[in-house]
Design brief:
The chain has 2 domains: about 50-230, D-amino Acid Aminotransferase, Chain A, domain 1 (2-Layer Sandwich), CATH 3.30.470; about 230-335, OB fold (Dihydrolipoamide Acetyltransferase, E2P). About 15% of the residues lie in helices and about 30% in strands. The protein contains 5 helices and 18 strands. It has helices spanning about 95-100, 125-130, 165-175, 190-200, 275-285; strands at about 50, 60-65, 70-75, 80-85, 110-115, 145-155, 155-160, 180-185, 205-210, 225-230, 230-240, 250-260, 260-270, 305, 310-315, 320, 325, 330-335. The chain is globular. The N and C termini lie far apart (about 45 Å). One of its GO terms (biological process) is DNA repair.
C-alpha cells in the first residue's frame, strides 16, 4: 500500500507554521471504577454551521475534514467500523481496521473521519469516493486513513459525560503516531479568525470549533461549530440539460432544495464532473426519466431531461444569488443514499 502523504502545516501571514497544542503525558494513576456497558452504536455529535469562528478561550479548533464520518469500535470480539447512518463498513476499510487492532487497548469507541489525502495533504471527498468504487460502490479502500477527533468509550468506561478536554486528553494518549493509518486530528492553538483565513488560503474546507467544557451529545446542538471556506451541501438532481458536445451528453445538472414539504429549483451545476463520472451520472439518470418536471421551472425546456429527484449531489458553491440560485457551483459527487444524503433545506 502506498503510504498516504503527510498533512502539511498551515502557515500564517509571516510564514511561521501554526503549531498544534503540546500533548500532555497520560497519567498512569487511574481510579478503579465500575465498568460501563459498551454501547452498540452512538449517534454522532454534529457541527452547527456558522459564518464566523467563535471567540473566547472556551473554544478549541481543528481542521474540518472532508470524508465519511465513522466510529471505530474496538471490542473483545474484534473491530467494527460503523458509519454515521449505523451501517457496518468494517470490510470496506481493512487498513483502518488493521491499524485499530494495533492501538493496544481492550475496548474503545473512537469518533472520526475517513479521508483520502491529495498530494498536498488535503482531504479530498472525490478521491475517497473513487477509492470505494463511487456511490454505492463495493470496493475496499486501502488508501483511506482515519482522522480521530474524539474518544467516547475507553477501557470499559463510557466517556460521554466527561468534558471535551478530558476526552481529548485520553485520545492523545491512545493515538501517538502522526503518520499511521489512524491519526490524531490535531487541536491547533490559534485565534479562530487567523486559523480560518489560513485554512482557506491552503485550499482546505474549513475549521471546526468545539466547546472545551461540553459533554458528548448526539445531534446538532451547538457544542461543535463548523466554519466553511466554501459552502458544500446536498441537492436533489431533478434533471439535466442535454448537450450534443459535452461529456456523456450532460451539459449541466438541474438542482433542487427543500422548502417545507416541496422541492424548489435552485439552479444548475455544469462543472466538477469528468468523462467517467459524467457517463456514470448519465447511466443512473436515464433510469429515472419522467415526463413532468418535479419542480416549478420557468427556464428554457427544449433540451431538459427531467428525472425523479432520487439522487442527491454534493455541490460546492460560493454564495446564493438574490433570486435564490446557487452561485459559482461545482459538482463534487453523489451522496450515498444511506449516508449523509440529506437535501439542503431553505429556511
Amino acid at each position: 500500500m502506498t503510504k498516504p502523504p503527510k498533512s502539511k502545516p498551515l502557515l500564517s501571514e509571516s510564514d511561521a507554521p501554526l503549531r498544534s497544542r503540546p500533548r500532555k503525558p497520560r497519567d498512569p494513576a487511574q481510579p478503579n471504577l465500575p465498568l460501563d456497558p459498551m454501547p452498540d452504536r452512538i449517534d454522532p455529535c454534529l457541527a452547527l454551521l456558522k459564518s464566523r469562528p467563535p471567540k473566547g478561550p472556551e473554544w478549541a479548533f481543528e481542521i474540518k475534514w472532508d470524508g465519511y464520518r465513522l466510529s471505530v469500535h474496538i471490542e473483545p470480539k474484534g473491530i467494527r467500523i460503523i458509519t454515521r447512518g449505523g451501517h457496518d463498513w468494517t470490510d470496506r476499510f481493512p487498513a483502518i481496521a488493521k491499524a485499530a487492532k494495533k492501538l493496544g487497548v481492550a475496548t474503545a469507541i473512537i469518533d472520526g473521519e475517513a479521508v483520502v489525502l491529495d498530494e498536498q495533504g488535503r482531504s479530498d471527498f472525490g478521491l475517497l469516493q473513487q477509492s470505494l468504487g463511487g456511490r454505492s460502490g463495493t470496493r475496499t479502500s486501502n488508501e483511506a486513513i482515519f482522522m480521530a477527533f474524539d474518544l467516547l468509550y475507553f477501557d470499559g468506561r463510557d466517556l460521554r459525560q466527561l468534558e471535551f478536554t478530558a476526552r481529548r486528553h485520553l485520545l492523545e494518549g491512545l493515538i501517538k503516531s502522526r503518520d499511521d493509518v489512524i491519526r490524531l486530528s490535531e487541536e491547533i492553538e490559534a485565534d479562530g479568525d487567523r486559523l480560518f483565513l489560513a485554512a482557506c488560503d491552503h485550499g482546505l474546507e474549513g475549521i471546526i470549533a468545539k466547546d472545551r467544557e461540553s459533554t458528548y451529545r448526539s445531534g446538532r446542538l451547538g457544542d461543535w461549530l463548523k466554519i466553511k471556506c466554501v459552502q458544500s451541501d446536498g441537492f436533489a438532481i431533478v434533471g439535466y440539460e442535454h448537450s450534443f458536445v459535452a461529456r456523456a451528453g450532460i451539459g449541466s445538472l438541474l438542482l433542487a432544495a427543500r422548502h417545507g414539504r416541496k422541492l424548489v429549483y435552485v439552479g444548475s451545476v455544469g462543472t466538477g464532473f469528468n468523462e467517467r463520472t459524467a457517463h456514470e451520472l448519465r447511466e443512473s439518470l436515464d433510469k429515472l426519466k419522467v415526463k413532468k418536471p418535479p419542480v416549478e421551472y420557468s427556464g428554457r425546456r427544449k433540451y431538459i431531461v427531467w428525472v425523479k429527484p432520487t439522487l442527491v449531489a454534493e455541490v460546492e458553491y460560493r454564495a446564493w444569488t438574490r433570486d435564490g440560485k446557487l452561485r459559482q457551483s461545482s459538482y463534487k459527487g453523489l451522496r450515498d443514499p444511506d449516508e449523509n444524503a440529506a437535501i439542503y433545506e431553505i429556511e
